Amino acid sequence: MKRVLITNLLIALCVLIHGAEDDFVLSPNEFKPIKELAADIPTCSQNDSNINECIKQGFQQLTPRLKYGISDLNIPPMDPFLLGKSSYNYNSGLLQGRITMRNVQIHGLSEGIVDKATYRQKDNRVRLEVLSHVPQMLAEGSYKADIKLNDMKLTPKGTFNITLTDVSMKTRSLGELYERDGHTYVRLTKLETEPKVGDMHIYANGLVPDPALNDVILDFINQYWRQLYQAMLPETMAIWQPLMLKAGNDFFAALPFDLIVTKN
Fold first, then answer.
1. Which of 100, 106, 127, 213 could form a Cys-Cys staple with 120, CB 3.0–4.6 A?
2. CA proximity to 175, closest of 163, 165, 184, 164
3. Alpha carbons 61 and 35: distance in angstroms, whole number
4. What's the pLDDT tens digit per position in 174-219?
5. Packing angle, helices 211-223 and 225-254, rounded to 10
6. Rounded to a whole number, what is the largest CA-CA distance in the chain?
7. 193-203 confidence digits (pLDDT tens)
């Protein structure tokens, strides 16, 4: 019984904490060229002595609108945010197989609060650091796995939801300005994020056929989620950050930078 319990705990940790880090697919979005901004899109002047506060307020004005999308900025509805399909392949000696997640939705992004923004520009280089937090987020979806752990063949599947509270984020971006078609654009060279979670609660069914043992596994995960989260975060961000950098550059390739940070 002890060996089976440990085995199932390992599977559950892989599914719930480590299951969405490879072959990750973001929902596609078409970025149409933007020539001018609608009157309700906030802008800031690079000569404004309070540009940091202006940028902070601009982000805060736009955040609630993420729920239904901002078509003038090529931003689709993002609350809930659809992650699409994600999967992870295991090829270690202990664990081999594949875990797949589908129909994953993240709720709560439009409830975000921007705490601070710091903008710097020197010649053609720009830097922006934003501190923000979301009071509560909910991720939900379905999963299935086809795994071989040691000599045990296992195929757990079911649904899950993860509630995160007091989620804070520090985002740092670096970029280079360049001229094109009479406008100034920005090309991001680095985009880094540091997420921190105040608390987390995980639920899933189908980890094991026995509902009582399923609950034991969940109790264990919820008791030690912080240690597991810290252990998995570096590898997770190594997958996420290149995707975010590409999405950011696709976004800014269609939106002239001098429309949102004006020169006069």
1. 127
2. 184
3. 21
4. 999 999 999 999 999 999 988 899 999 999 899 888 899 889 888 9
5. 80
6. 72
7. 888 999 999 99
